[in-house]
Design a protein that fits this description.
Oligomer: homodimer
Largest interface: A-B, 127 and 126 residues
Number of strands of chain A: 6
Distance between the termini of chain A: 78 Å
Number of domains of chain A: 3
CATH superfamily of the largest domain in chain A: SLC41 divalent cation transporters, integral membrane domain
CATH architecture of the largest domain in chain A: Orthogonal Bundle
Structural class of chain A: mainly alpha
Chain lengths: ~450, ~450
Amino acid sequence: MSKNDIKDNLDIILDDSSNLSLNQIRRLLSKMTAPEIAHALESSPPKQRTLLFSLLKTEEEGDVLFELGEEIQQDLVSNISNEELIEAVKELELDEIVDILQNLPEERMDKILSNMSLVDRKRIEIGLTYPDNTAGGLLNTDVISVRPSNSIKEVITYLRDQGDLPENTDKIFVVNQENEYLGELSISKIITSKPIMLVREIMETEFLPIDVDLNDKEVATLFERNDLISSSVVDADGKLIGRITIDDVVDVIREDADQNLLGMAGVAEDTFAPPGRAARSRVFWLSLNLATAFIAASAINLFQDVIDKIVYLAVLMPIVASMGGVAATQTLTIVLRGLTLEQINTSNIRWLFKRELAVSILNGIVLSILVGFITYAWFQDTIIAILISCALIINLMSSVVAGILVPLILRKLKQDPAIGGSVIVTTVTDVVGFISFLGLATIYLI
Amino acid sequence: MSKNDIKDNLDIILDDSSNLSLNQIRRLLSKMTAPEIAHALESSPPKQRTLLFSLLKTEEEGDVLFELGEEIQQDLVSNISNEELIEAVKELELDEIVDILQNLPEERMDKILSNMSLVDRKRIEIGLTYPDNTAGGLLNTDVISVRPSNSIKEVITYLRDQGDLPENTDKIFVVNQENEYLGELSISKIITSKPIMLVREIMETEFLPIDVDLNDKEVATLFERNDLISSSVVDADGKLIGRITIDDVVDVIREDADQNLLGMAGVAEDTFAPPGRAARSRVFWLSLNLATAFIAASAINLFQDVIDKIVYLAVLMPIVASMGGVAATQTLTIVLRGLTLEQINTSNIRWLFKRELAVSILNGIVLSILVGFITYAWFQDTIIAILISCALIINLMSSVVAGILVPLILRKLKQDPAIGGSVIVTTVTDVVGFISFLGLATIYLI
């Protein structure tokens, strides 16, 4: 089956006008891989999604659940019985089971764990102790480890005895009797080395294992910086407890990017969330903006007299505010990106501030001349044209201060600067924009 | 050396107050990997960056250049001589050399190519024919291929003869005499299979090779959906021409996310770009916003009479506009995300539209009651309180139409919806906000 067929299958399933019988859909689903089915579920409105999921075989459900985003995963899990869930996750790897179970209510979790074998239960309980956003949360326990004194021949025999190696096994790990990590050995090194060589002679000890407590974003950075496919994970005593593979790291990178994008708009929901949930996820942000909009309105309110005298000030004032808002969002975005990529630190922040100020002055001159001319052409009023130009320059400079300081302060306060940032900076530029323009008008026109 | 040491090195280098001698910096740099040095360069203002780069050994420069973002890479390349550049890229893989050379001016490229061996030149020229954003642009030609009639024993001997396998070799490929792709064989399968088995008996033929013309974002999707580490790439005739590895795909994913984030704010520059370049990169967006701000101002201008009579309409009108802008950005973000993840199609867009409308009505009711009460408490004017509530609901509903239609229309017009989208949708909500509020006031108050 070619890739185009797969794409066609997806389109047919997602198109409700195609009127397939349940059996036809079942047949199409059986031709798709778990990630493809997960994508179909994530591209379906809730009702259709529940229907599609119910058509899966129980043994497929586990793999599909693991591939889904957290919100949809939880929805579907909450709709199936404990027995079905146990059956569904039976064949999954430990980190996958933990990923699915960790968000269950405690009571339900206990019931499910009590139905598992003691060995599985113990292993899952250990997995559940690691926070979701750490190396521990990405951990696979399917590691293959050998001793430094083994010969390559012994290693190859051992690997043959295993039958299939775990997925994404590009290397195995070398440990001592206490299971402490000593080094690693790539599969290609094993295959290209002479069978009589000893593990200790060819193992690599340069790259250090990842600490189980390391933040998952830092894990992603390590993988990217070192072009890793897998890495060992050790506990505080240096004992090998598992490995992390690139496929789970790619998910971290995607989710991180997704959250940055959504966070800046104050939404936190999957694309096809039901209306009630979507409304709840967004109302906080809208309410926050309402509060800040009234703050901006209060700034205008101070200048009722001057607006009353020269009504087209009211026509022009949103221009100053809006330009400041866009400039501030640009500065904020650059700072947020720099913070995310860990490029910004105490040694270069001053340079960045000066650069942003220079940018705002450069663009401020160009734009204020433009605004001044358009305003003059429109209202034939030289003084107002000059005032709006000055107010614009003032507001662009304030946008730099807000765009740089707000994310840094939010970070100091342990808040995510991507989430609160844009509403706060645009409030600053709204207020400064209204006050500078109307204030200058009050001074020079009445 | 532990990971913490590496981090310390970076901090020391980046901190100009540490006053290191050039030799000390050189020593620190020599302890760092190419991606770490690239990160240090990307975290440095231009002058410091040029200095750091000049301290690298020529043989390190190639690896570091490849790890850098396009803009910084080009800057640094433009500062070094042709001889140094040829020396620097000598040890790189073909796809890496192509990545660095492809943005050079034609004249310079010709000079550099003419200094290379005929074989290298031919290979690089082939690499340069593939567009940057396709599978061809990610291509490595360091593939290992075997014939279906080979035994595993022969394959292992062949691999041993190679010495080190290319990086990220998790599989080798099976081709016929015409070099047409037939299947693949994972290294772990080779190691765990009996030496007498034939390649044809154990090769996998299920996953299809990637077409050289495939868009790089679709390559990334294929890698993610199938948890791939590497994939074969074929030309239009089905001949194996190379492979793509996960490390390059991770870069595509990161860059894509980065561009989405930056695109929405209309910035396109590296974090420490010099002021002139940063100003140029942003001025287009600011000018576009200036045009749309004047459109919104023209809407207000229609209602000078009513503002003249009731001046606090001018105080309140930005609230309606601003709330609509935030709601529209939320809808836009959800649609953009859905489009990026290929979740939105003709079959579910209608559901999405209805959902967004329901969200806007739900939140519209809550927020308009809130706005009404606050307005009444502030100005003691029942009619204005009712009017602003109604205008807010109208504007929130318009935000849904704009937030959904604008990105879809931009995409139809082959524009990137992430880049033009937000300015257009907020213009719509500004105009509708001002007209609905001031229009209702004109009807009911004068």
